[in-house]
Amino acid sequence: MKQRFAILAILSLCFVLGTASASVVGTLLTGSTGTITVSDTGITWNPDPAALPSTTCAVGKLCNGDVASGTTLTYIGCPGPACLTTQEGVLIDNGNTLTPSTLIPEDFFLRFETTPSLDFKLNSIGTPFVNESGLTTACSTLTLFQSCVPFIGSPIVLTLTSTGTSAHIDLFGTASDDGGATFTSAWSGSFSAPITGKTPAQIELEFCTSNTNAAQAQSACSTTATESTSNSGTFVATTTPEPSSFLLIGGGLVGLATLLRRKKAA
Predict the structure, then answer these.
(1) What is the dihedral of CA 113, 117, 118, 122, to 10 degrees?
(2) Domain residues of the chain, as ranges?
(3) What pLDDT score does 223 carry?
(4) What is the pLDDT of residues 209-242, one digit of tens each?
(5) 54 within 8 A of 110, measured Cβ to Cβ
(6) How much is the pTM?
């Protein structure tokens, strides 16, 4: 009986300590009644008039996004299912233009108006390779729901839809709810934007000199062409156990194995 209690105690300790570091968990959805301006060199999120409050969001800049309904994000400071309110202002990329040369990691890539301690840090930007997962620069040969990139190394993926094009960019980072002091969660997500009435091939021609199905470098593309459209974001955060948690769990398993061996030997 004592051995059983000891086993339960070890397992309980591992569970409690292993989850004590849980920080930011769940899905964050963002939207905007503002626009984003996309060029071949970067993305600019323009002010969102629907974000609350409508005055400065953070660091003296206007909010350029807001929390959308369906968000399930929880964190230590707010463990309930409604921690962030719909239309709460979000400042994306500190109000700057996101470019391939953006300094990474970038702290507070997402800032929240009423939750200043919640920090989504940007660690990397997805840059698909040509022919990776079927992606090519041959935007003129796409069939419905196939994707392409306008040039080699472009972080923006163009997908042919029934109404035109869906453009998206993939982002990855870490999250914290204590102002960035300790990052215990990893997040991945993307911003997507519909471009109605234009196919990926037409958009490729706006930005680049051709869509001749040949892989082309960014140097063949314009730095002045832009597209402005609405946007939305989806980000999923999961906890990442700290090294100390792994040690505790490992120690608990070793202790459990020792007790079981002793029981068999008795």
Answers:
(1) 100
(2) 1-21+242-266, 22-240
(3) 66
(4) 665 555 677 777 766 788 899 999 999 999 865 5
(5) no
(6) 0.79
